[in-house]
Amino acid sequence: MVDVTLFSKTGCHLCEDVKVVLERLTAVYPHHLTEIDITQDPVLFNRYRYTIPVIRIGETELQAPITVDQLKTAFKASR
Known about the structure:
The protein has helices at residues 13-25, 42-48, 68-77; strands at residues 2-8, 31-37, 54-57, 60-63.
């Protein structure tokens, strides 16, 4: 199972959208999702505040806008 980290914050509609896409991909790409609220860490907030959602899958980091094809490629690379 692949570990996926989602950097997000409350009220981010793009973050909610990407969570739905990740849920749909679970059957083909089993993963464990960890969501991190960037507003709880000043370093993460400064790093990601203009680029969320940010997803880390293995060594791959994706920033908004995130496509289904990018997610699939990241999952494949993490195997």
